[in-house]
Design a protein that fits this description.
The protein is of the alpha+beta class. Among the domains are: 1-36 and 86-100, no CATH class; 228-369, Jelly Rolls, CATH 2.60.120.260. Helices cover 12% and strands 21% of the residues. It contains 5 helices and 9 strands. It has helices at residues 26-32, 164-168, 194-208, 210-224, 294-297, and strands at residues 127-128, 135-136, 228-230, 234-237, 270-288, 302-312, 317-323, 330-351, 361-369. The strands form 2 sheets. Strands 3, 4, 5, 6, 7, 8 and 9 form a 7-stranded antiparallel sheet that branches. It has a two-stranded antiparallel sheet with strand order 1-2. The longest helix is centred in the middle third of the chain and has 15 residues, at 194-208. It is elongated, with a radius of gyration of 63 Å. The two termini are 120 Å apart. The model is unreliable at 27-33, 35-73, 77-84 and 104-108 (pLDDT under 50).
Length: 370
């Protein structure tokens, strides 16, 4: 039996559609005028009655109608008293909350779910992740997707720790204000004697520490920038040969050198340079030997120890001993002095000193600030 409303096929003899619950018996009743019988077992049709005998000429007897054939099938079910007869123009009847799908090619409604079996364990809902909302089993503590903690009880957020300068001195806790009151206006109290006294103490301390402050500023300036080359105004030597004078050690050329007039170790021989204005000496460069080339470097004796004497504008002398290596090229030394007007380099010992050789110094350079 096909439902005229939803088109669902029902077993024969069904009074209501199993899909939309529409009544199915009105179509047969409209055709026959009687309720449609239920499908029953097949019954053989009754035998036909013999034709009546022709009436005799002497008497005419009225024909007795044959009794109706006994109904062999079960009686049709009675129409429920609470369902009114359905007319052709009435809309289809459906249960509450259900409407058939009349779209072409739509699948039939799924059958109702079977009730759960008594031996089936109850199904527990999953635990959604608070971060990625992924579904997790009920017994898990970490999310299967992002690894977040599924325990809803999280530690409370702690207040940030105050910075160190606020933790040095204890601060008074502010008392909560009473209802209806306002915080007092902060008024900066003008100092009367504190500020002048502090300024006087600072000025006196700066006056007594002016020398240390000057050295501090000088040290910061010397270490902040690179030293500049310092060129002496006059140079001289204790002795010199005519072809290797003292000026050759300060001409910025490494193929010319100074040599004393007396051959040998050169002990006591010196070079001296004067500056036009006092300078702050920071570094000293010495090129030992007669040349920077290895074959010419070994031709003369080389100083191994030199004493540097710094003379200030006040006549104060400062000495420092330098040990030189026996290698060609420049050698740098940190020689510091302030208010320097004269520098003397005295030879105390030499490498490869012989009677036919003289101590040679190719170049001397000064670096500092004016």
């Amino acid at each position: 039996m096909i439902c005229p409303d939803c088109g669902h096929r029902n077993p024969p003899g069904t009074r209501f559609c199993t899909s939309c619950q529409a009544f199915l018996a009105w179509e047969d009743e409209e055709r026959t005028g009687q309720p449609a019988p239920d499908a029953g077992p097949a019954v053989a049709p009754p035998a036909e009655a013999p034709p009546p005998a022709p009436p005799s000429s002497d008497a005419t007897a009225p024909a007795t109608p044959a009794p109706p054939a006994a109904r062999t099938g079960p009686p049709p079910p009675a129409t429920p008293p609470d369902i009114a007869p359905r007319r052709p123009d009435d809309p289809p009847r459906h249960p509450p909350g259900h409407a058939p799908d009349h779209r072409t090619g739509s699948p039939a409604d799924p059958p109702p779910e079977a009730p759960p079996r008594p031996d089936t364990p109850p199904r527990h809902p999953g635990r959604p992740c608070p971060d990625c909302r992924a579904e997790n089993p009920h017994d898990r503590r970490l999310c299967v997707r992002c690894g977040a903690l599924l325990d809803p009880a999280r530690p409370p957020v702690q207040a940030p720790r105050p910075p160190w300068w606020r933790r040095i001195l204890p601060r008074r806790e502010r008392r909560p204000l009473a209802a209806g009151s306002r915080p007092g206006r902060r008024v900066w109290r003008r100092p009367r004697l504190t500020l002048p006294v502090v300024l006087v103490v600072l000025l006196v301390a700066a006056w007594f520490a002016r020398a240390q402050l000057t050295q501090l500023f000088t040290f910061a300036e010397d270490n902040a920038g690179d030293p500049k080359p310092l060129h002496p105004a006059q140079v001289r030597a204790s002795s010199q040969t005519p072809s290797h004078r003292a000026q050759a050690a300060f001409d910025s050329l490494s193929n010319r050198y100074w040599a004393p007039a007396v051959p040998g170790s050169g002990t006591g021989q010196y070079l001296e340079a004067d500056f036009e204005r006092p300078v702050r000496l920071q570094k000293l460069l010495i090129t030992s030997g007669s040349s920077t080339k290895p074959d010419e470097f070994l031709g003369q004796a080389r100083p191994s120890r030199i004493t540097v004497t710094l003379v200030s504008s006040q006549g104060e002398r400062t000495t420092e001993s330098l040990n030189l290596s026996d290698a060609p090229g420049q050698q740098s030394f940190d020689v510091r002095g302030k208010d320097v007007t004269r520098v003397r380099l005295t030879v105390n010992a030499a490498y490869a000193a012989r009677e036919d050789r003289r101590v040679a110094i190719a170049e001397v350079e000064f670096f500092g600030r004016q």
